[in-house]
Sequence to fold (271 residues):
Amino acid sequence: MHPAASQAFFEEEAKHFSPALCARRGWTMHTLQYPIINISFTAPCRTPLRLTFRCDNWNDLPPSIRLENLDGTPLQNLKPNPTGVFHAGPHNLTNLPFVCMRGSREYHTHPSHVTDLWEAVRGGSSYTIGGIMTQVWNAWLKGTG
Amino acid sequence: MSSDLEKAEKDLKKAERDLEKAAKEVADAEKEIEAAKKKEEIEVSISTTAGFYPAEGFNSVPKKQAIEHELHKAKHALNIKDVTGWIATVMLAGGKRTLDTSKSYAENGLTEKAEIDWGPSEGGGG
Fold:
């Protein structure tokens, strides 16, 4: 994907990640500039979860998703979550905990899932950048801590 | 002749008073209808990562209408291709609640204003 085309696709989606949407969902947007989305999910009685979605080469590749502490450093210890989306890892490429879910680059590059191709879901309404963010958010909401 | 004119003027004034009274009654009735309608309606706004429906503010829809009716309109307005596996939720003080979209707003316990968030449920973990 040509970087300019990737950026255009990214910006077409990112324009909808408005302050109104963030307010409704309890999202705090730290950075929204191609190719980076740095965001915190917040909810009552929960420790916020900060994440970086790196969307270089979108949408030839799914976003690379990094789980972070509130200060933006990589998260090492995961809070309890029943969904299986948040994997303690370490991931074979990043050596970190990772988002183990279709639509995450770390999922599709993990040896257990390399046959589950991004191409199979790419372009679907649930696998836009916003769709993937929403899926991760919904998984996080099911957890505790 | 003069008494005929006086009578006509008197009748005209009475007719004007009657007309004014009738107009007020119509206005009151319209207000009552509007209030009754409002009691049966709910203000709805749907948020997705593809945009809001309506783009600004809220739509007034019948409380007895199934939620999926408004979601269907949002899908078309926001050019969303496929909503398989999507969930509609509302944020409450105690957390997020998933709605049964085949049921009405009233059946889902929504009464005055509904800020509905709509999007894909969590993906399966590996």
